[in-house]
Design a protein that fits this description.
Elements (H helix, E strand, L loop, with lengths): L3 E5 L3 H13 L3 E5 L3 H9 L5 E3 L2 H5 L4 E4 L3 H12 L7 E5 L5 H8 L6 E8 L20 E5 L6 H11 L5 E4 L2 H30 L11 H7 L6 H10 L1 H23 L3 H16 L13 E8 L4 H11 L6 E6 L5 E8 L2 H13 L4 E2 L3
Parallel strand pairs: 1-2, 1-4, 2-3, 4-5, 5-6, 7-8
Antiparallel strand pairs: 6-7, 9-11, 9-12, 10-11
The structure holds nicotinamide-adenine-dinucleotide and prephenic acid (PRE).
The site of nicotinamide-adenine-dinucleotide has 30 residues, from helix 1, helix 4 and helix 9.
Length: 366
């Protein structure tokens, strides 16, 4: 049965879910946001079926309310929902990156019309706002659900049914284990990425040429340092106990590493790097999740005008769409590598064939 879904917070995540659910045509979507411009964008781009500037009025039309605001704002919205007299029962869910504070807020709800189901789609981007929303953002991504306190399988199944068009894979976790795991594979890496950027910025005072040497490796590991600072401060604050513990653990590990470097412990260092490589290589690559996976190919192209355009045009002529392009290293007058990312293995293989047929040196690397 078609549901009325209110999405409160139409940024990257709320906008992406709204876009997906509206495209599916199976349910009716209503968008609410504190920013008028966001609502105008959502309306003029057909991201929702209807927009509202009045939260309390909009919730009365909804069967399902999806809160997609920053964590602190999500808690405030939950508190506001608790004071509303509903004309029917509603499912309320959220997308916040830290779950314990949200489930603690759910425990404080006294409104009998509300069934609260925690949620967290494990995909995203360093971009923010509705302009960056993509309807396929959660395809194959893990979507964590925290069932309601008064376990209600029927309502959890209804929510899964509504969200299934996103292409996510649902898993049920407890809030604490969720926060510990996302602490390790999502929140803590953000701290480290920002700290690496600070280190580079500091050393630029000594070597002004330094940014020019920041090639693929530095850019790969620090991409997420370009994320929304306010959102990440909110995440760090709400998961501060786990992050403080992880930082302590990391500082000790760095001390051990320093000792391996200072004493030139060659064998131990190789083992350390090998263990990391084996674990990283063994991560589930063909799914999005903590580590998004792409189906990449590497193409050698010459540094000459139009070289990049020729590759893109060849693939476009075959109606192949590229998810991401990165120029890894092209030096004047020499060949260099281009990394093209595709969404499936089939498209990756088809692209490889097209490029080989036109004389390009292209490879798939593990
Ligand atoms: N960005 C990611 O990679 C990612 C991934 C998964 C989950 N999340 C979670 O999703 C939530 C939203 O993050 P985002 O990346 O979409 O941020 P965003 O900044 O792109 O969007 C947030 C939106 O919420 C709106 N908003 C703020 N306060 C509001 C309120 N009181 N009522 C209604 N709308 C309000 C803002 O105007 C904005 O449009 C956060 O809780 C975050 O933890 C983020
Ligand atoms: O891909 C990114 O840029 C993200 O930061 C996405 C990411 C992550 O850390 O993997 C960030 C926060 C979320 O709660 C879930 C996903």
């Amino acid at each position: 049965m078609s549901q009325n879904i209110l999405i409160a917070g139409l940024g990257l995540i709320g906008g992406s879910i709204a876009k997906n659910l509206t495209e599916s045509g199976q349910n009716y979507t209503i968008g609410y946001d504190v920013k008028k411009k966001t609502l105008e964008f959502a309306s003029s781009n057909g991201i929702v079926n209807e927009t509202s500037t009045d939260f309390k009025e909009a919730v009365q039309k909804a069967d399902i309310i999806l809160l997609a605001a920053p964590i602190s704002e999500t808690i405030r919205l939950m508190e506001s929902l608790d004071t509303i007299t509903f004309t029917k029962d509603v499912i309320v869910t959220d997308v916040a990156s830290v779950k314990s504070p949200i489930i603690n807020a759910a425990k404080r709800l006294t409104n009998k019309s509300i069934t609260f189901i925690g949620g967290h789609p494990m995909a995203g981007s360093h971009k923010r706002g509705i302009e960056a929303a993509k309807s396929h953002l959660f395809e194959n991504a893990i979507y964590v659900l925290i069932p309601p306190l008064q376990n209600d399988e029927g309502k959890v199944n209804l929510l899964k049914e509504v969200l299934q068009h996103t292409g996510s894979k649902f898993v049920v976790l407890r809030p604490d284990e969720h926060d510990e795991m996302t602490g390790v594979v999502s929140h803590f890496p953000h701290l480290i990425a920002s700290s690496l950027v600070h280190q580079a910025k500091k050393w630029q005072n000594t070597h002004s040429f330094l940014p020019n040497l920041a090639a693929g490796g530095f850019r790969d590991i620090t991409r997420i340092a370009s994320s929304n600072p306010k959102m990440w401060q909110d995440i760090f604050y709400h998961n501060r106990d786990k992050l403080s513990y992880l930082l302590g653990e990391w500082i000790n590990e760095m001390k051990d590493l320093k000792s391996l470097i200072d004493k030139n412990e060659k064998t131990k260092m190789i083992t350390y790097l090998e263990n990391a490589k084996n674990y990283r290589d063994g991560l589930p690559e063909k799914e999005k999740g903590a580590i998004p996976s792409f189906f990449d190919i590497y193409v050698d192209i010459r540094d000459q005008p139009g070289a990049l355009a020729s590759v893109v045009l060849l693939l476009a002529n075959k109606k192949i769409s590229i998810n991401n392009i990165q120029i890894l290293e092209i030096r004047e007058g020499l060949t260099g590598a281009l990394r093209l990312s595709f969404s499936t293995k089939e498209i990756q293989e088809a692209s490889l064939e097209v490029l080989h047929n036109h004389g390009y040196e292209a490879t798939i690397q593990d």
